[in-house]
Structures are given as structure tokens and as C-alpha cells.
Amino acid sequence: MRWGVRDEATDDHMTTELCMREIQNCQRLSMGPNFVVFLGQKYGYRPIPTYILSSELQLIRDDLASMGVDVTLLDLWYKKDSNAVPPISILQPISSILINFNNKRVPKLQAEDQAVWWDTLTKMQKLFRKGAASLFAQGKLDKDQTHNYFMSVTEREVINGFLNVKNTKNHCLAYIRYINNINLQNLKKASLYVDILNRSLDTEACKLLADLRDVRVPNRIEASNIQKYTIEWIGREGLDVDTHEEYLNHFITHFYKNIVKLVDRAMRKEDSSAQGQIVTEILQHLHACNNSVKVFYGRKEQLVRIERYMLGTSDKPIVLYGEGGCGKTSLLAKSAALTTNDWFAKVRPICIIRFLGTTPDSSALTPTLISICQQISYNFMLPFDQIPDDLVPLTAHFKQLLTYANQQQPLILFLDSVDQLTGAQDSNKVSWLPTRLPPYCKIIVSCAAEETNPVVSQEYHILRRMIDVEENFIEVTALGEELAMNVIKMWMRTACRDLTNYQWRLVANAIGKCSLPIFVKLVFAEICRWRSYTRPQDTHLASTVMDSIMMLFERIEKQHGRILVFHALAYITAAKSGLSESELEDLISLDDRVLDDVYQYHLPPVRRIP
Prior knowledge:
Residues 544-599 form the NWD1/2-like winged helix-turn-helix domain. The protein has helices at residues 7-11, 15-29, 54-66, 72-77, 107-137, 143-147, 153-163, 187-190, 203-220, 245-269, 274-294, 300-311, 328-343, 365-379, 391-401, 458-467, 481-494, 501-513, 517-527, 545-560, 562-574, 581-589, 592-598; strands at residues 35-39, 51-53, 78-81, 88-91, 172-180, 196-197, 200-201, 226-232, 318-322, 350-355, 411-416, 441-448, 473-475.
């Protein structure tokens, strides 16, 4: 979990948050096992909170002060961010106070500041625990609030990856090991296996671990998914490969068999039939649609025109066009949502949504048409084996399927970025689109159109000639300053964020120069990072989309390392059709310069990404 964590994450106290995000990624991506917990006799590192409700910190501070305790350290290291709603206090980056903490060029100064930090951390840990325990005794903090100041990173990981999971049977395994007669005379070696405080066992950590390991974990998992071991401490080293061979072999066998079991169980549930595959494809586009609709705001005039088309008699597709980043995708997604929930609420419309180019089966024309034909056939209970593989008969079959639309089941297709499809004729990527639609069938497509770029606008001009009905073309323009500001304010409220008056003026100035939705999104992503105490010279917004993207790349480089970001983007750019995540990981894993930079402190058993 710690491999590849950079100095910047340690400096900003983001290591714990990175680990929690990685657990979420495993839960999101893994079909079968996604979390295996190994618990021994060490509770582990117990950090102080990076973020605390300002009201809670004030309670702790006041209570400590009333006891005559010096709270100068808390005042120095925590700053109140009033941009958060409600306000939070944030632990400051270490190097903002101890400027040589990351200074690798002067190792002596770096070592001094690092020693000061670890001493400071210990003192603040004691302050928080003393204050939290006192407030808990007074009934001013509940049990969970209090435990937050005593909890280790390990327990937090177990809570997020294991205890809070609904289905541990199919996704989690637990291994618990007890070592008898640990030799505490050899503190250096013993500290690898138990928590040491003042040259003896940390009894508080032992108690917290026992509750987690011996009570909460066993109560949350099936007996078949947990394995316990008890072994003896051997000699000075503690563990010995020869002496503990039986235990190690049993663990390896048990781990292997149970991981395979969980993977097999997940695969049996996976529907690999054509029907199952099309459902997976549909869900991917529905998720994308839902994500776009969540942040949609405005565009009432365009939505009225689209509704009029949907409910009208037009027998031709309708086209949303505009420059890149103008909001065509979001408008199309919102139209799809309104079609099902509002415009056709009295019937059962069949909505087919494709954000072209976002999945393997929606990037090229032939697989896209096949998946659309499969979805139509699925809804009208038609066999899949009649769907051709060759483009010409496939296009004819697609148009034939559209005729199955009826009054009770209107057929509505939403196709975003039709100009991005590959595999059609290079000179005409949209010739497969029907120019005349059967009754109860509507098609809404989007494509790019830029006056200054005829290459980008090529498909748009072809669509103009194919459809030749002015009212069936809706230009999607920039939001305009007022709407763009309203959108940002709505997003900020949703994110529980606010800005100072000065910062709001900066946003207004930037939006006054560009109000394209993509620019608004980039501005929002940037200002969400601003604190109320952020210095004016550090609150900068670009005035163009390209400059905003460059700022984003610079921030990503700072966060993840320039070498990793530079090489990853280079590989993606060099690949003609892009790269899948697994392909990108394989390429980076062959790049020694990236691996040397990523694994600065911890070398994993297998040198690869991730």
C-alpha cells in the first residue's frame, strides 16, 4: 500500500488519504477479491488528523488551555479554512514551517528538520489524545469522534476495506498471526512485530489492536475466509524460514486457493454471453450519462428545442454542434434523462445512449453498430444471430431495426461525437446515419464544428448536406458569464465549498474572458483547492482553455512526479488509438527511469506499476 508514495504526499500529510483512495479503486475495479487484511501484534502508525472541524479543534484547544496545557503547537500547525462549509482546520505542510524537511541537497539540515517534525508530531499526538479523552469524559465528544485521535492507519484501512463492506464473503480475506514469547530485550527487532513505547510494550496500542483483531474482524467475516496462526519466537530474529516452514507453506497454500476461489466465484457470476456483454456496454454509457447529468445546469432554450423535436413530426435526425468543450455531451446526456423521465413519461421509450469513443465497442463504426443493433434486438426480443458483421449489410440491418419502433415503445438514439468514430470511409464518417427516420424513431447526434478549423468541421458540413433542415441543427455555444457563474456557484454549494470576496472576483474575471463549459470545469477544479488563507500570489486562474489544461498538467506533475506524468502522456500520445489502463501500466513497467523515480524508498517484490 505504501509503495510509490512520494515525498510530496508525506509533506502534505496525504499518505493516509492516498491509501484510502487505493482501497476504493480496488473495490471499484476488482470483480473478486479486493482486500486482504494481515493482522499480527502491531497496531501501527497513528497519525494526527490532517483535517479537523474547526469547531472541534476549538473545543480541544479550549479544554487543554483550561487545564493549563500549552497549545502553541496546535495554533502553529493548524490553519482554519473558512472556504470549507462548515469550516475545517488543516494541518499545514511540514516544509511550510520546517523548510529543510525535503531538502535532499543538504542532508544534515534535512535530518535536523525531520527529527524536529517527529518530535513535534509526538507532542501533538499527546495533546489531541489528552484533549479528546477529557472531552469524551465530559460528554462533548462521542466515542467515534474520540477514537479518531487514537486510530492507526492500519485500522482505518481495515474499516474502509473490510468492516464497512457489505459483502466480505466474495471480496475479503483475513489472516491473523500471534507470536508467542517475543524477545523484548532486542527492541530493534521486536519493534517490527509489536508497538514499543518508552522501551516497553505500548499497552494502549495493544488494547486497540486486540479489539480490532480479536473482536471486530472475526465478527464480520465468514469462518472460511479467515485463517489464524500461532507460532513461537525463535532466537534473536524471531521468524525463521526453516523452523516456521510448515506455517509458511500452509499460509501460501491457503492464500492461493482462497484467492482463486474468490476469482472463480466472481467469474461464474459474470455473464459472458452476447446478452451479458451488451448489458455491460449499456451500463458503461449509462454511468457516463448519469455523471454528466449530475453537474448539468441551464441550457433551457436548447432543451425546449430538443423537446419540440422529440415530440414533433420531424423524420430526420437532429444535430448538436459547436466547438470542442462547449457542452454538447452534457446537453445530450440531459436530453436522454429528460426523455425517459419527463418527455415520454406516459410510454416506455427505448433509449440507446452511446458516448462514442469512450469504450472499445463504441470507438469504431462496426462494433458500435453491432452493439446498437444488439440493444435494439434485445428490447424487441429479436435474435442476435441475424446481425451481420460486415459494414454494408450491418448498416442496412441497423436501419431495418429502426422500423420496429412503435407508439408504446418509441426508439430514441443519443449518439455523442459521431465525428470521432473510426472505421468508416475517411472522407465521410457519417454516411451510415439514416436521413429519413421511420415513425416513432428519433436520433440526436453531436459533432464538432469550428469556423477556423475546416478539418474538424468536415463531418458537420456533411451532416448539413445530408439533413438539410435548418431547425434540426442546434448550435451549442459558450454558457455566457452569468450562467457560467451560476453553474460554478451551484457546484461549489454541492462540494460544500465557498470563496473569499477577493477569490470570487478572480473567478468572475476569468469567466468574463471564457465561459466554455470545459473552461468552467477546469476553473472549478482549481478553485476547489483554494483555502481562505491561500496567499493572493498563489490564487491564479488562466484565461484560456489551453492555459488551464497546462496548469492542470503542471499540478499533476508536482503531485505524481514529472517523469511519471511526462512518460505516461508520451506513451498515450504515441499510440495511434490510445491505450487501455492495463497497456499503459505494462509500458510504464518497462520504463526504468519511471520505476526508479516512483519507488524511491520501498522496492516492491516485482518492479512494475502499480
